[in-house]
Structure formats: C-alpha cells, structure tokens
Write a structure and sequence with these properties.
single chain; alpha+beta; Rossmann fold; 3 domains; seven-stranded antiparallel β-sheet; six-stranded antiparallel β-sheet; globular
Length: 639
C-alpha cells in the first residue's frame, strides 16, 4: 500500500523534475517507510533513486512513497525493475494471491529476489502482460514503464478500491494517488466541474463517474487498463472485468456452504501480511463476520485488535453488539467516542483529507476509528465495505424485491413480504411504498414524477440560471435501476460504493494504514450475483439472507438475527447541530456570496427558518457548509 505520481510528456518533450517533487510532497502519509524516483528519456540511460536526490528532467517521471506491508526490507523499494531493465513499476495496493502466482511462475522456471507482491506482479506482467489482470485477487493501481512495447501500462483494480486520478494539460499526462498531488500544480485549473457540482448538491453523489468536482481532473475508471505510447500517448481505457448476472442452480444449502468457503478463503488471503492486522468492528453482521472469520482462520494464536466507534449519546449506539463479538471472539477491542470539541477541530482536517466534498458527516466515525488504530500501532485493517452492495443490505433494495414479486403476480408472497417489511424496526413505510411505486413508472415519466413528488430538477436553494448557463439542461436526472441485481450492480460500480471506497482509502491512508475489504473479490461478486433474488432478500424481507445462513456456526446467532440496519451510522442530527456553530459564520462571509451555484437569498431564508423553529437539519445544510469550506480550502473557481 503506497502512493504514486507520474508525468508523461508528448513528442519527446521533457518535464522538469521539480514538478514530480511537488506532487510527491503532497502525500507523505501514504508512504512513511520509503520513497523512490525514476526519470526516463529515450536518448539517455534511465535514472532511479531511493534517497531523494535530484534527478534529470525526463519524458517520463515517477515518484513513489512506500507503506511497507509485505517484505518490509529495502530490497522491495519502488520503482522496481525487472532483471534486464526493460520494465519498471510503481504500485499502490496489495496482491493477496501473490504466493499462488509466484508458485506458477516458479514452475515456469522464474526466480525471485524478494518476498514482495510487487516483484510477483512485475514478473507476472512480464510473462502474461495484460492477461494477468483477471487473475489478480487484490486492490491496486499501478503504472509500468514497458520499454519492450515502448508504452506506459496503467491498470486499476476491478472495484476501484485504490484510487488513481489523472489530468491532461499542455501536452502532459499527470497521474496521482490523490487529487491533492494534481491540484497543487500551477497549470491545472481549480475551476469546478458544474455537472459534478450539481450531482453533489442535488443528490449528495460523488465518485459515480470518471469526473471529479475539478474540471481538469478525472478518475481512471475501475476494472480498466490503458497502454500509452511513450511518444504519442493517447489515453484509451479498456475494461477487463464486468460483474456478471449468470443464473446458477444451487440449492440454498449448497449456496450457503460455497459462500462460507469462499468468504473464509477471502479472509485467509486478506490476512497475508508481514505487519500486524486489525479490524474495524461496528457490531453489524458484516464486520462481525470478518472478525469471527479472522478468529476461525487464524486460530486462538492470532493476535487480533479491533476498533469501534460507539455513539453513546444517541439511539445508534451498537456498543452492546460490539461487546458481544469481542466476548465471543476473544479479541482486544478499542473504542472511540464522540467528543463535540474534537469534532469541531477535526472536521476541517477531514475536508482536506478527502479532497472533495462528501455527502454527510458520517465518515467522521470511520476517520476516528483509523486514528485510534494508528495510535495502537496497526498498519493493516480489515473492513466490511462492499457487503451491502453485493448482498442487498440497504433498505431501498427491499422495494426492488417487492416490485419483482408484484410483476411476477405472486400475491401471496407479496402480502407475506409487505407484512414482514412493516415489522422492521427502522423502516419508513411511506418512503418504502413510494420507492416501490417508482419501479412501475415508465422511464419517460420519471422526471415528471420527481417534479410532483417534490424532487424536481432544481430545488429553490440552487441557482438554476447558473447551472443552465454552464450547459446543464433541465431534464438532468439520475437513472434508477428497477431489477434487484441491476440495482445492486449499479450501487457497486456507480452510485454508492465508489464514494465509500474513496472515503475509506483517504481516511485510512491519512493515518498510514492499509484498509482491506475482503468482500470485494471478483469471484465472490460473480457468485453472489448468480444466485436467485430470494437468496439475497428472502420472501420474508430478510436482507443478506444467504450470507446469514452461511455464517451460522461462525457468528453469534443473535447478531445474525438482527433486523435493524446501523453499521457505522452516526447521530447526524446531533452532529449537524454541533457543527452548526462551526459552520454558520460561513454564510456571513464574502466567499458564500461568491458561490454562484447557490441561491443566496433562499439559503439564508431556509437557515433562518430552521434556526427559529429548531427543526431537524437536512443533509442539504451540511452540503452547503462543506461546499463553502471546500471552496475556501482549495480556492475553487466557479467561472
């Protein structure tokens, strides 16, 4: 797990070395255990240095910061070269099945100088090229200077667990693990991208496409690779994996057994490390399964430290369930609590860490969990991210399932399902019925339905004239998937998980921690999406139904029988009121009036009404504050 930066120029031109140094200086937290640089030009010998010496300007420049997890010795520093100096790699991430790939290569007669996954990845590319990508179990973004093919090879993992940003300006491509490494460059504009800003303000959406909120900066897409010619580079991405919706014929018992075997295999792979591994523990089904899986795979001798956020000041406190797992698994647990004074001090740092605005304050809990893990000497953490998108854990998926039953005409099951939903402890029946009804609205009427339900193209607090002047038409809408599997895949690849993975990567790496997500392997995803809908959400509205069955005998029954949905959910209302005093002065400053995407008059009126009535604060208030603070921190340009 590391951080990387690169610059590639067109037509044999060179980039000054100070540019890569400037990018490199933005990410010391991503790699405190070592650093390295590379400079290449076609007319001279390649330069590599691991002691931060000034290198010559070059057509291609690399920088790398290392967080040492596998083979922590200096022999595994990057950039790393192959034996005959025709391939050079910088790599951010982990290849969990590197041992198996190494064994396959050794059978072919290849030998190794290190015990690192980086050398295995480089050797595997040397032998199999791009065909190695579907065989990798891991999280990664990597760049390889391939002098055999005279190209720069770029790839990102199937789910986009590890970030990779890029920009093209004035004949140069720039690549980086963090947006901050790009926005620090003088020639990259800080102008906002209006469509991304609209999606954030209107829906709280980020990271659902290749766009960022900066017009000049894009994201290299997950599950893609590219080959850039070193003289005439043109970035053309090729997809190498797409989630499949095949149909298997497993019985529930067979599927549960296979799912348990696959899950424990994932845990075993994700435990591979030369440094201690901990886990985030919320007390929900996903994190509990990971901790109990770690104990099952590692046995009694495995030292496991777990870290939990406990919201003792609210109804969202899961401390009872955390303690239940700790007791059952005999792990050591550390807890972090909400402290208003600390929250106000941390929130501006969190905005800087993330680089872009985020939809709610809930990721602060995750931020504090990683901070606690750092204080206790942990460099690797396992986390349950991705389980909800694979297994149907979110409440809106219930409406997909009910709509399917209605379309099938099975009204006995419809009644049974609806009755079960009514008994869920944290369900809004009105919202649930509206969501179900939306699945029967023809696509050409969706915008009209949003208008009459109060979800119009532009709420009054957004400045419609400005967005239209920036090229957004009034029929912009977010496509909603109607089938359960399609909705899950959309959440996995676009609408939900990509943002959560960005939050997790930036939060964890800020504290020099590698966060691993064992639910997210392609084999695991393809198997789950091959199962019948009823295996995921049962006829009695039990979410993650087959996974609960698969975990019986491993995870305490009372946790598997939970029907509420909390996770790392935080007391948003308490937090928003706490943050109010910190952020409300922003609305009295010149910067607020310089943001043309907000209707200043309406915003102030709604703020005054909310303050007078002491009403609950909507997420839009946080988006306003976040946008203003982010604009200030990054000196964002709107015109």
């Amino acid at each position: 797990m590391c951080g990387l930066n690169a610059i590639l120029t067109e037509k044999g031109a060179s980039a000054p070395f100070f540019m890569i140094e400037k990018m490199h200086a933005q990410i010391p937290h991503r790699g405190p255990d070592g650093e390295g640089f590379l400079s290449w030009s076609s007319n001279r010998k390649i330069e590599i240095d691991h002691e931060f010496k000034q290198l010559t300007e070059g057509q291609l420049l690399f920088s790398h910061r290392r967080l040492a997890i596998q083979d922590t010795f200096s022999r595994s520093m990057q950039p790393m070269a192959n034996n005959n100096k025709t391939l050079f790699i910088i790599f951010n991430g982990e290849i969990y099945n590197f041992i198996e790939i190494r064994q396959s290569l050794e059978k072919l007669g290849y030998s190794f100088k290190t015990n690192s996954d980086t050398e295995v990845l480089l050797k595997a590319y040397e032998v199999w090229g791009k065909d190695i990508l579907p065989k990798l179990v891991g999280m990664f973004s990597f760049l390889i200077l391939d002098l055999r093919k005279f190209c720069l090879f770029i790839a990102r993992d199937a789910f986009g667990i590890k970030p990779l940003y890029y920009s093209y300006k004035n004949g140069r491509y720039f690549f980086a693990s963090e947006l901050n490494s790009l926005i620090c460059l003088d020639n990259i504009s800080r102008k906002v991208y209006p469509k991304a800003l609209y999606d954030y303000l209107r829906f709280g959406l980020t990271n659902h496409s290749e766009d960022t909120l900066f017009e000049d900066i894009k994201q290299f897409p997950a599950a893609h690779y590219a080959e850039l010619n070193l003289i005439t580079p043109k970035l053309e991405m090729v997809r190498y994996w797409t989630p499949q919706q095949s149909q298997s014929n497993y019985t529930r018992e067979e599927a549960a057994k296979k799912l348990q075997d696959m899950f424990l295999k994932n845990i075993e792979l994700h435990l591979r490390s030369d440094v201690p591994v901990g886990a985030a523990l919320s007390g929900g089904i996903d994190s509990s399964a990971i901790v109990m899986g770690m104990r099952t795979v590692g046995g009694d001798s495995l030292d496991i430290k777990t870290f939990s956020y406990c919201a003792r000041e609210s109804n969202y406190n899961e401390e009872f369930w955390v303690d239940r797992v700790v007791q059952e698994s005999a792990v050591e647990n550390f807890k972090v609590l909400f402290i208003p004074e600390t929250f106000n001090a941390d929130i501006e740092s969190l905005i800087k860490v993330q680089g872009e605005p985020f939809g709610s304050t809930s990721i602060y809990a995750q931020y504090k969990v990683f901070e606690l893990a750092k204080k206790n000497g942990i460099k690797v953490m396992l986390d349950g991210q991705g389980a909800d998108e694979l297994l149907g854990g979110y409440r809106p998926y219930l409406s997909n399932r009910l709509a399917t039953l209605i379309k099938q005409g099975n009204f006995h099951k419809v009644v049974q399902f609806l009755t079960s939903v009514l008994h869920l402890p944290d369900i809004s029946i009105k919202k649930f019925l509206l969501q179900t009804g939306s699945h029967f609205i023809p696509s050409f009427l969706e915008n009209f339905a949003r208008d009459i339900s109060g979800q119009s193209f532009m709420p009054s607090w957004m400045e419609e004239k400005w967005f239209i002047s920036q090229g957004l038409c009034s029929n912009v809408s977010i496509n909603s998937e109607k089938e359960l599997k399609s909705s899950l895949i959309n959440s996995l690849t676009k609408s939900v998980l990509p943002a959560l993975l960005r939050y997790e990567d930036h939060n964890s790496m800020h504290f020099s921690i590698e966060s691993r997500v064992p639910f997210l392997t392609t084999e695991f995803a393809d198997f789950i999406y091959s199962l019948d809908d009823s295996f995921l959400i049962s006829d009695t509205a039990e979410t993650k139904s087959i996974f609960r069955q698969a975990m019986r005998g491993l995870v305490p029954e009372d946790i598997l029988n939970r029907r509420d949905k909390i996770g790392f959910k935080t007391p948003e209302q308490t937090w928003l009121k706490t943050i109010w005093n910190w952020g409300k002065d922003s609305f009295n400053r010149d910067l607020f009036y310089q943001i043309p995407s907000l209707n200043h008059k309406v915003v102030l009126e709604q703020l005054e009404t909310a303050t007078k009535n002491n009403s609950e604060l909507d997420f839009k208030y946080w988006r306003w504050i976040n946008l203003i603070k982010w604009s200030e921190i990054y000196n964002v340009k709107f015109t």
